[in-house]
Amino acid sequence: MIMKLLNRLANPPEGKYHGVMGVFYYVDDAADAVRTLRQAGHRRLSVLSPVPHHQIERALEQGLSLVRWVTFCGGAIGFTAGMSLCIYSVLSYPMVTGGKELISLPPFMIPTYESMILLGGLTNLLAMLALGRLPQVRPRAPYDPRFTEDRIGIWVPCSGVEAERVREMLRGHEAEEVRLYE
Amino acid sequence: MSEYEASMTAETVGVTEHLPASYTQKALNDDVFRMIGWPGRIWWAVFILDLAILLTGGIVLRNQIVLGLGVAGYTRPVMWAAYITNFVFWVGIAHCGTLVSAVLYLFRSHFRRAVYRVAEAMTVFGVLTAALFPLLHTGRPWFGYWLVPYPSQRGLWPNFRSPLEWDVFAVTTYLTISSIFFLVGLIPDAAVARDRAKHPAMKLLYQVFSFGWIGTNTNWKYYYGGYIFFAAMATPLVFSVHSVVSWDFAMAQTPGWHSTLFAPYFVAGAIFSGVAMVINLLIPIRKTFKLEHIVTLDHMEKLSKLVLLTSNIVAYSYLTEFFIAWYGPSKLERDLFWYRFTGHYWWAAWIMFTCNALIPLALWFKPVRRNMLVLFILCLFVNVGMWFERFVIIATSLARPVDPAVTVYYRMSWTEAAITAGAFAWFFMFFLIFVRLLPAFSIAEIKETLTMPMRRKPA
């Protein structure tokens, strides 16, 4: 019973896919295929690989990630929250200690700084996961364990005649294997 | 030999950073995953011994909780002693991981790829160990939540001007960020583990660690987009946390503590002991699992150079402290430093100085840096020396306060010794599990340094 449940959780049923998956060994072949597919108007393609390849990134013309802005906002919120907490604590119970100013900015900078890093780090994590579409219970593209080993997969969502055309394109670029999902 | 292997040599594609050009991505996966699996007899023997020490520490701790802090060796005015020494020691050990993973990442120091996962794991387990001690030191650990900044029932808040409160912020932030950094680094490698796992429970565990990672271009883009910011935030955090720990002492007007030198001195000391501990952990791992081609002698030598550099900074700080005491106006400060090396605790001070300033000088010689047995023993001395450094700073300053009439001799009690040993067992328990459960080397990052298969020769 437990094994059955574990098996079910560990191996979720595959989703329904419509498109073509090409498996490549050579990085330059995969990069060329991406370039050709994008020129043919396939902008929604995905590349699955064990490591990021600069050649493929360039072919995909990926822009800069938006994570930085979310992280910046998180850091700014953390800074404000940390400083506000320190100031609020002394104003809500005004008690002079050690002859120091109630609002003593230099020592307050330390909890403020740590709060900035904490909130910045947490929002960075959330942004990285949300924008990178993680966690994923069911893969968004057909998955093959070879993609975490040494093979590169190019997934092109399409159907019908277009799928046939994509299949030929991928074969033309020396894909080791081309699979059609209908 | 395939077409790829025949055409791709180190000369045609450039330097491959330590690993041979013929080394494949699959071979790397196979090598790293040799470590993961059901452990053998030696592992079990070590693990059971470790648990026995931990259990002893736990029983002694139970005794301390029931009977009170009187069973510890505290002798007025030495009310900070072994526990705070352990706290600073373990926070210091933890620092190396973030240095290796974040600071060296920002500096594009590629040798870090082979060693950073072990260092990061050490960081997380080090902070988990360090965090025990402020709680144990309070004597009533069930009131540990009082450290959290919230007002009491009379509306009184903790004092945000106090270094002890800064410590709460610094250590919790450090624990959170270093844990996240460690877990984020694991994501792509956990996916490899998931794909290789046979048992459904293990598959599920790695699926959770990998967040369902499949390595799409979107996954990678935001992964590295976020990773660099973790590194950018963790870097100043490394320096700030141990500076804050040093201010626990430096903010007090106690001879031997009240110095602006403390922050850089503590940070260098933390990195020093942390790198030495990483070397102590890596040498047995690379030998046991025959991974000398992944963690090469060059990597170990670079780490040992870091030990040498930080040892010199620490030695310079010792001498500067003396100089300031001698040159400065305070007679109390002068007396204290003289007392440290000639008084009751002369033995501890000389262990500290010998292990931290003199013995590491051997690292100026290349044969020492490349001899793993000698390096291992030398780093053990460094760790002993760094534990004693914290002990000397804490115990001597308190044992001989401003009024010399109250000079006392603090002796570590058996309770404190057993809890100290238990803390080491606590740390190694996590570490022993880690090496058999999770990839101890970053497959994804090491893979990036391999020669990638290209059909055409690069121009």
Summed up:
The complex is a heterodimer of chains A (182) and B (459). Chain A is of the alpha+beta class and 182 residues long.
Molecular structure report:
The complex is a heterodimer of chains A (182) and B (459). Chain A is an alpha+beta fold and 182 residues long. Chain A has six helices and four strands; from the N terminus they run αβαβαααβαβ. Chain A has helices spanning 2-10, 27-39, 54-60, 67-92, 105-131, 160-172; strands spanning 19-24, 46-48, 152-157, 177-181. In chain A, α2 runs parallel beside α3 (54-60) and α4 runs antiparallel to α5. Chain A is elongated, with a radius of gyration of 25 Å. The model of chain A has no long low-confidence stretch (mean pLDDT 90). Chain B has helices spanning 3-7, 10-13, 25-33, 41-67, 82-106, 116-130, 132-138, 163-196, 200-210, 217-250, 262-288, 297-327, 331-342, 346-358, 366-369, 372-399, 414-437, 443-448. Chain B has one domain: Formate dehydrogenase/DMSO reductase fold. The longest helix of chain B is centred in the middle third of the chain and has 34 residues, at 163-196. Chain B is mainly alpha-helical and 459 residues long.
Task: Map the helices and strands.
The complex is a heterodimer of chains A (182) and B (459).
Chain A: H1 2-10, E1 19-24, H2 27-39, E2 46-48, H3 54-60, H4 67-92, H5 105-131, E3 152-157, H6 160-172, E4 177-181
Antiparallel strand pairs in A: 1-3, 1-4, 2-3
Chain B: H1 3-7, H2 10-13, H3 25-33, H4 41-67, H5 82-106, H6 116-130, H7 132-138, H8 163-196, H9 200-210, H10 217-250, H11 262-288, H12 297-327, H13 331-342, H14 346-358, H15 366-369, H16 372-399, H17 414-437, H18 443-448
Helix pairs in contact in B: 4-17, 5-6, 5-7, 5-10, 5-11, 5-16, 6-8, 6-17, 8-9, 8-10, 10-11, 11-12, 11-16, 12-13, 12-14, 13-14, 14-16
Structural class of chain A: alpha+beta
Shape of chain B: globular
The number of helical elements of chain B comes to: 18
What is the strand content of chain B?
Answer: under 5%
Rounded to an integer in angstroms, the radius of gyration calculated over CA atoms of chain B is 24 Å
| Rounded average pLDDT of chain B | 89
CATH topology of chain B: Formate dehydrogenase/DMSO reductase fold
CATH architecture assignment of the largest domain in chain A: 2-Layer Sandwich
Number of domains of chain A: 2
The CATH architecture of chain B is: Up-down Bundle
Enter the CATH topology name of the largest domain in chain A.
Alpha-Beta Plaits
Please give the number of β-strands of chain A: 4
Please report the distance between the alpha carbons of the first and last residues of chain A.
34 Å
CATH H-level superfamily of chain B: Formate dehydrogenase/DMSO reductase domain
